[in-house]
Amino acid sequence: MTSPLSGFVVVDLSSGIAGAYCTKLLADGGADIIKIEPPEGDPLRRWSASGAVIPPGADGALFAFLASTKQSVITDPDDVDDVARVNEMLRAADAVVWSEGSRLADVPALRPDAIRRELPHLTVTTITPFGLDGPWSDRAATEFTLQAWSGGIVGLGRGSRDRAPVHVGGQVGEWLTGAYAAIGTLISRSRALRDGPGELVDVSMLETIALCLTYYPVTYAEMVGRPFRAGRAVVTPGVEATRDGLVGVGVGTGQQWLDFCVMVDHPEWMEDRSLFAKRAHLQPDIAAWMGEHTTAEVLELASALRIPHAPIGNGATIPITDHFRERGSIVRNPRDGFDEPAPPLRFTPPLLRATEPAPRLGAHADLRRESGRIDHDGGPDSVADRPALDGLRVLDLTAFWAGPLCTHVLAMLGAEVLHIESTARPDGTRLLAGLSFSEAEWWERSGIFSGLNTNKKSVTIDLAGEAGRELLRRLIATCDVIVENYTPRVLEQLGLDFATVRAIRPDVVMVRMPGFGLDGPWRDDPAFAFVIEDASGLTWMTGYPDQNPVSPYCVGDSNAGIHALYGLLLALEHRRRTGEGVLVEAPMVDAALNVAAEQIVEHSAYGAVLGRDGNRGPTSAPQNLYLTADTDAKGIRDGWVAIAVATDDQWLKLRDALDRPAWAMNPQLTSAAGRRQQHDAIDGHLAGWCEERSSGEIVDRLWEAGIPVAKVMQPHDQPALAQLQFRGFFEEVDGAATARARHSTMPIRFSRGPDRFHRGRAPRLGEHNDEVLQAIGVSADELVALAEQRVIGRVPDAAR
Q1: Distance from first CA to last CA of the chain, Å, rounded?
Q2: How far, CA to CA in Å, does 396 sit from each of 79, 392, 407?
């Protein structure tokens, strides 16, 4: 079967993980990726996070994973003829992915503005730290400093107050940005096929991290009147040390807490309702119980009681874990034979291209491309008359974060999204305002629900009975897309497997987002973000090496949502070509395994188990958080700056910015290896320098000198960032029962629009019942009867 992107030609002018992952996703979907490299090759060819020595002529394992199914062409940026040849390839291509970081990016003719000017038919996707324009667009940054600016380091209260807050390890921002870049490229492609011509797709890593590592903190704070979480704390229970290892256990509901009390032999805790919200002081008792049991025993008990749980996976254990082995989640690299994650998506019918070996440097020296693109009239920046996804109708059977994120992007780009809830079980984010049930319309005042559901319509249907299920079947007949994130057995109990749904709507695209997949030993296990992070290795990389790791409490959901969206877009392209319906299986854990791939490939290829290292990392030395002289409203010193030196040149600039102190003049420190060896000593000196200064003074001095630096921001303070203000990352939106509040948008700016992403506020519960149901033939009298029977409604049962 032809892959959805067959014939879609993409020239890859990027370097780094984000661009490589973007083009890998496109290649898996069938696109022809032409990777342009300087004579010395992409720096990723020589990269190993563990420091493994890459022999001359060989490639690092991460490169071999990310470059599979691509073609390699060498271009000397100083050779006019070579650059002209690249321009010929661009003329015959459909899209180009560009980022800074190689000598090719500095060639004037290969800059995004030049490409757009000369070749307006192209989709030009750019990946930069801050976006292509704005007051910070030329500032130095690393992913670590971007996490600090975004509020993602303090995130959802990660870490304890006796140490610096801790960043999310594993370079997750790079991978998340790559996934968003692939989404932006496909959105632009679909618009070019419909309307023509191409456009600029401007992807910001800062905005990606702000969206994916924090939980709509600005909208929450402005609608509720206080931050979502204040301060830092270690979640109890969380990652626990057992008699023979580590296990992740968590409670997300009151019932799960009660069951957990039984599991750890403390039924008396059930009598104090306050312990559900305040239980940190119980950690010693929980730790004692865990220490008396093996990991297998804890997992078995938690499974029996349906308490969220997972083993703490890492690069060594994931490939031999029963669930991943049975599902084929880990495969062999087609060229070098090491373990790597399988693609994060599965399709019925099969749509992905078979993975081919990564190319050796310059393996396609004689490559010539004949243009297969479709020419359209129009200028490079003409705004489309219609939104990108106008006319697409989506049945949204999702709740909480991952599923609604997927459908929210569709809604922001013009799709009609019907968000299905019930009065018995509203979307769980409606309950996250932290308000008493005695407060008026508490269910309409959640900033998190609002942040994820603008532009959507709310329809309430009780699916427990046949009347509600019949309504749902009638709605399915009118929808192009169905997205659901129930556990697999729920949809089966409703009698709505893919065959049944396709019998109702033959060309439907059905996206299923189970935590662990539609088969395998863990199929029916409950999956929250932290469980996915624990199982996939993301937790293993986050925290201090002398303590248990900590779950990021964010990436498991946001990452799953954007990967599901990418799969949905591929399926829509297949439907456009063939008229055929598609089932997309987008397991949360498979998406997480892919963004944690570096752990798996490094262990299999080199025998190295990558691990957490506090706020240090493999790409910069020094890299850490340093306490400043700032104090908070209570006079407590808890202000931090992030500093990361990614190159030897940046070290020389830092040395000069510090007025060349004697300790910094050690010749050993002019190399990354020397600085890494002396990291403790450097940290001591930088800590002493920073603690005497405010964060503002530190940032001003170091950033002006060209050194990656950031203030560690609170998430709800994101609107204070001048770069986000310039790019209009926040838009004001009315609340259903609150005043206007700022809402985050997308980490992508499309040159052809939209000029505004939020066209309408998030809906009230059941607000569109009459409109939507009457359109499928439900009469006014039937609506009254359905309301009386509580099949539909506008007030949660909990508020009655």
Answers
A1: 54
A2: 53, 12, 7
Q: How far apart are CA 597 and CA 63, in angstroms?
A: 11
β-bridge mates for residue 584, sequence order: 347, 511
User: Hey, what are 745's tokens?
Assistant: 């948008």
| Under 8 Å between Cβ of 516 and 523 | yes
Q: Look at the pTM and tell me if it is higher than 0.90.
A: yes
Distance from C-alpha of 66 to C-alpha of 59, rounded to nearest angstrom = 11
The pLDDT of residue 230 is 64
555-578 vs 529-536: helix axis angle to the nearest 10? 90
Give the residue from 592, 533, 539, 538 showing the smallest Cα distance to 561: 592
Among the four given CATH numbers 3.30.360.10, 3.30.1540.10, 3.40.50.11890, 1.10.1200.10, the one describing domain 621-707: 3.30.1540.10
Q: Output the pLDDT for position 451.
A: 98
Are the CB atoms for 367 and 35 separated by under 8 Å? no
pLDDT at residue number 371: 43
Could you tell me if 161 and 638 are in contact, meaning their C-beta atoms sit under 8 angstroms apart? yes
For residue 552, the one-letter residue type is: P
Q: What is the CA radius of gyration of the chain?
A: 26
In the chain, DSSP finds a helix count (H) and a strand count (E) of: 28, 24
Residue listed under structure tokens 């670590």 = 144
Q: Cβ distance 157 to 137 under 8 Å?
A: no
- 460 three-state secondary structure: strand
Predicted pLDDT at 252: 83
CB 566 within 8 A of CB 179: yes
In terms of Cα–Cα distance, which of 239, 230, 216, 358 is closest to 295? 239
Q: Report which of 458, 499, 507 is spatially closest to residue 480, judged by C-alpha positions.
A: 507
pLDDT at 233: 73
715: preceding bond cis by omega (within 30 degrees): no
Q: Are 490 and 501 in contact, with CB atoms under 8 Å apart?
A: no
What confidence score (pLDDT) does residue 375 get?
46
Burial group, residue 370, by CB count within 10 angstroms (0-12, 13-18, 19+): exposed
Q: Which residues of 700-716 are buried (b: 16+ CB within 10 A; e: fewer)?
A: eebbebbbbbbbbbbbb
Rounded to the nearest 5°, which phi and psi values hold at 229?
A: -140, 140
Q: Which residues pair with 202 in a beta bridge?
A: 126, 749
Distances (CA, A) of 65 to 98, 154, 358, 775: 20, 31, 7, 49
- Asked whether 190 and 569 are in contact (CB, 8 A), the reply is yes
Long-range contacts, stretch 74-77, CB < 8 angstroms, 24+ apart: 74/37, 74/38, 74/39, 74/361, 74/362, 74/365, 75/36, 75/37, 75/38, 75/104, 76/38, 76/39, 77/38, 77/103, 77/104, 77/106, 77/107, 77/110
Residue 385 confidence (pLDDT): 65
* DSSP letter, residue 204: E
Distance CA 628, CA 631 (A): 8
Q: Copy the structure tokens of residue 641.
A: 């700056």
Q: Where are the domains of the chain?
A: 251-307, 621-707
User: Quick one: CA torsion of 495, 499, 503, 508, rounded to 10 degrees?
Assistant: 110
**Residue 376 pLDDT:** 43
pLDDT < 50 regions, the chain: 370-380
C-alpha to C-alpha distance for 630 and 140, rounded to whole angstroms: 23
Q: What angle do CA 370, 371, 372 make, to 5 degrees?
A: 115
